[in-house]
Write a structure and sequence with these properties.
Number of helices: 2
Radius of gyration: 21 Å
Largest sheet: 6 strands, mixed
Structural class: alpha+beta
Strand order of the largest sheet: 2-11-10-4-8-7
CATH class: Mainly Beta
CATH topology: Immunoglobulin-like
Length: 185
């Protein structure tokens, strides 16, 4: 009977604390962007970051993928900051190819970790991720996935960028509407 409680405690202690850490997306430096706040026209760009609201305990590497539907936009690049755990890295723009997500999503991926087990304070861990708007008709839903084992993937955060037609397109649509109205009279 005494073995079972010890086994349960041992199992609970072996759950990696960092796997439960909250990673979030920030847009243009806004650490908690509310949905509907950001709009871009086709070809417009935004700078994305990955930040943590909890400390990193130095014990477990966590892999991340910041992605969106490729028809809505392109996510590329990323640079670990001074606040990131010492061995954190951006690994590429091919999250789909490396098994972190499936089509139609793709984007940047990397890991946050420290081989030496050095803890880190909360802050922006990955900076300078670029989002380029590819559509004028659909919202870009940015998803941040995390995994520690490439078997279990967790949706850590979601952000939305609304994409709107560029002003010239809107002006041409307005003029077309006026011409149709005049012709119908």
């Amino acid at each position: 009977m005494k073995i079972v409680p010890i086994l349960i405690v041992t199992c609970l202690m072996s759950v990696p604390a960092f796997a439960l850490m909250d990673l979030e997306i920030s847009i243009n430096g806004d650490l908690n962007p509310p949905d509907s706040q950001y709009t871009l026209s086709p070809g417009g760009t935004a700078v994305l970051n990955i930040h943590s609201i909890a400390s990193y305990d130095g014990m477990e590497d966590i892999y991340w993928a910041l992605v969106c539907d490729t028809a809505a936009g392109t996510i590329t690049g990323g640079t670990p900051t001074a606040a990131a755990p010492s061995d954190s890295s951006w690994l590429g723009d091919d999250a789909q190819l490396n098994g972190l997500v499936t089509a139609p999503e793709d984007g940047s991926w990397g890991y946050i970790g420290s081989i030496a087990g050095t803890p880190a304070d909360p802050g922006v861990y990955i900076d300078d991720i670029s989002f380029v708007c590819e559509s004028d008709s659909q919202d870009a839903i940015l998803n941040l996935y995390t995994t520690v084992d490439f078997e279990t993937f967790t949706l850590a955060d979601t952000a939305v960028i609304h994409q709107v037609p560029e002003p010239m397109t809107m002006a041409l649509l307005g003029l077309g509407g006026l011409l149709l109205r005049k012709r119908c009279k």
